[in-house]
């Protein structure tokens, strides 16, 4: 069985740059500072459904 994945979307431009595995014990949305290649800077990325 394959692991379920969710996308991380940039909070500035909204592009979905990164994919992470969905963890069943994570109750809140994951928020991570990542580099967005479309914005050209480090921005907050949030887990999308």
Automatic annotation (TrEMBL):
GO molecular function: structural constituent of ribosome
Pfam families, per database record: Ribosomal_L33
Keyword flag Ribosomal protein: yes
One cellular-component annotation, GO: ribonucleoprotein complex
GO biological process annotation, one example: translation
Keywords, sorted A to Z: Ribonucleoprotein, Ribosomal protein
Keyword Ribonucleoprotein part of the UniProt annotation: yes
Coiled-coil spans in chain: none
HAMAP family xref list: Ribosomal_bL33 (MF_00294)
Family: Belongs to the bacterial ribosomal protein bL33 family.
Protein name: Large ribosomal subunit protein bL33
């Amino acid at each position: 069985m394959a692991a379920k994945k969710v996308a991380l979307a940039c909070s500035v431009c909204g592009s979905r740059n990164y994919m992470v595995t969905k963890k069943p014990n994570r109750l809140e949305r994951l928020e991570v500072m990542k580099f967005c290649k479309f914005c050209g800077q480090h921005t907050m990325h949030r887990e999308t459904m």
